[in-house]
Specification:
Chain B: This is DNA replication complex GINS protein PSF2. Chain B: It is found in: Nucleus. Chain B: InterPro entries: GINS_A, GINS_bundle-like_dom_sf, GINS_Psf2, PSF2_N. The complex is a heterodimer of chains A (about 210) and B (about 200). With about 210 residues, chain A is mainly α. Chain A contains nine helices and three strands, in the order αββαβααααααα. Chain A has a three-stranded antiparallel beta sheet. The longest helix of chain A is centred in the middle third of the chain and has 22 residues. The N and C termini of chain A lie far apart (about 60 Å). With about 200 residues, chain B is mainly α. Helix content of chain B is about 55%, strand content about 10%. Chain B has eight helices and five strands; from the N terminus they run αββββαβαααααα. In chain B, the strands form two sheets. Chain B has a three-stranded antiparallel beta sheet. Chain B is elongated and about 80 Å long. Chain B starts with a helix and ends with a helix. The C terminus of chain B is likely disordered. The chains are: A mainly alpha (about 210), B mainly alpha (about 200). At the A-B interface, α5, α6 and α7 of A face α1, α5 and α7 of B.
């Protein structure tokens, strides 16, 4: 229901790791010139900036000698200042749809240790807001306000709230049969039906006769 | 957990009824109830009470706390107190909801009671959200919430544990990255000592 431990097959994790990150080349990389669209040389020269996908970068060591990973603008100090003032008004979804997860991957590459703290603090500040908007679903229309993880939390909160309201009005939710029992019943019914069909076969000619008459 | 399951659990609480029939004791899986004698009050589980009431075989005696003055006091107490006060019944919402919907005629001033019970629930719920907020923003590593009822806990589940999971993940990431680089000697001594205290709080969480 809530896939919050990203794994190889989780689609959110694939989306996040597709994101491009700006890197500065530090050493001459032979025959990798094709990575830089604007390069004329066959080799990748030091000092150039290229965009590499996160799934590639995250396999590199933090202090590798080839690239310096640049911190995306959204996490820069300016935004940190904004975040510390009033986080609930930021439209996180517009900044980045996977604000937290993207930040989490980039945390080790940030020498100033800002990203890690930003995402931690931002979520910490915004949980109250999430709890509040889950109580009245009128605000859910503003799509861009929430990051992917937040909107999932919000959905979970809304679901709880609708269940509670339905219960108060005594409508809708009844205790359902457990899945195991349901499966068992289905299986039994199916078995019975196939038995019936076996027995019916002798009857069918007579019923056909009746219909023709 | 669905509210209907909480209702199911709450239905086990005992309530007094006055039957209008006489019968031998009923032997149920969890114990016996009865004997029933017409006109004499007897304690039965709530589910049986509502069932009999729907067939008009009994009258439900509202529990002692289901009274305007008592509830008014509880409401004031709840407003005054910083903590959650003890409720007269562990499933007060479920009992109130079931009794008042199946037998509104058996409860005097039913509508007023309904409003005040809803008020109490709302006060407690907003108190819960405020204390959750204080807990998350504060430095504490655990929180103790006494006297909460199941339905109140339900109102913040599963969103609260999910959010705490996420927060813990990001905190772990932030501290881990700080520790890694401080071990490489890239960090100043000042922030290295900060890491020590933060990892401490990580373990206690």
């Amino acid at each position: 229901m809530m896939n919050y431990f990203p794994n190889y097959y989780s689609i959110e994790d694939i989306f996040v790791t597709q994101e491009k990150v700006e890197c500065k080349v530090n050493t001459r990389l032979q025959r990798l010139g094709f990575l830089d669209a604007g390069a004329e040389t066959e080799d990748l020269e030091p000092g150039r900036t290229i965009n590499l996908p996160l799934w590639y970068i995250k396999e590199l060591k933090v202090n590798n000698s080839y690239f310096t990973i640049g911190v995306p603008d959204i996490y820069k100090n300016v935004h940190k200042a904004v975040c510390e003032a009033e986080t609930t008004h930021i439209e996180l979804g517009r900044l980045h749809p996977y604000f937290y997860e993207f930040g989490r991957y980039l945390t080790p590459y940030d020498r100033n240790h800002v990203i890690g703290r930003i995402i931690f603090e931002t979520l910490r500040q915004r949980v109250r807001h999430l709890l509040d908007i889950s109580k009245n679903d009128g605000e859910s229309k503003r799509e861009h306000r929430l990051d992917n993880i937040e909107s999932k939390l919000h959905e979970a909160g809304l679901r709880t709230n609708t269940q509670y309201i339905n219960w108060l009005q005594m409508s809708g939710n009844h205790i359902r049969i457990s899945q195991l029992v349901e499966e068992h019943q289905k299986k039994r019914k199916r078995a019975e039906r196939s038995d019936d069909e076996g027995g019916d076969e002798t009857d069918t000619p007579s019923s056909k006769k009746r219909s023709t008459m | 957990m669905d509210p209907s399951i909480i209702e199911f659990i709450g239905e086990k609480s005992m309530i007094s009824i006055i039957p209008n029939f006489s019968n031998e004791p009923l032997h149920l899986v969890y114990g016996s109830v009865g004997p029933f004698r017409a006109g004499f009050p007897v304690f039965v589980p709530l589910w049986l009470a509502t069932h009999l009431r729907k067939q008009e075989k009994c009258r439900i005696v509202p529990p002692e706390w289901m009274e305007l003055e008592t509830l008014e006091e509880i409401k004031e107490e709840e407003k005054r107190s910083k903590f959650f006060t003890k409720m007269p019944c562990e499933h007060y919402m479920v009992v109130a909801q079931l009794v008042m919907s199946t037998a509104p005629d058996d409860v005097p001033r039913c509508e007023e009671l309904r409003t005040i019970i809803k008020d109490i629930f709302d006060i407690r719920e907003s108190k819960l959200r405020t204390s959750i907020d204080a807990f998350i923003k504060g430095e504490g590593t655990y929180a103790k919430l006494d006297n909460l009822t199941l339905l109140e806990i339900h109102s913040v589940r599963p969103i609260l544990p999910y959010s705490l999971d996420h927060i813990a993940r990001y905190q772990r990431m932030a501290t881990a990255s700080q520790r890694d680089t401080s071990m490489l000697g890239l960090n100043t001594t000042g922030s290295a000592s900060g890491t020590g205290s933060m990892s401490n709080s990580l373990f206690t969480q």
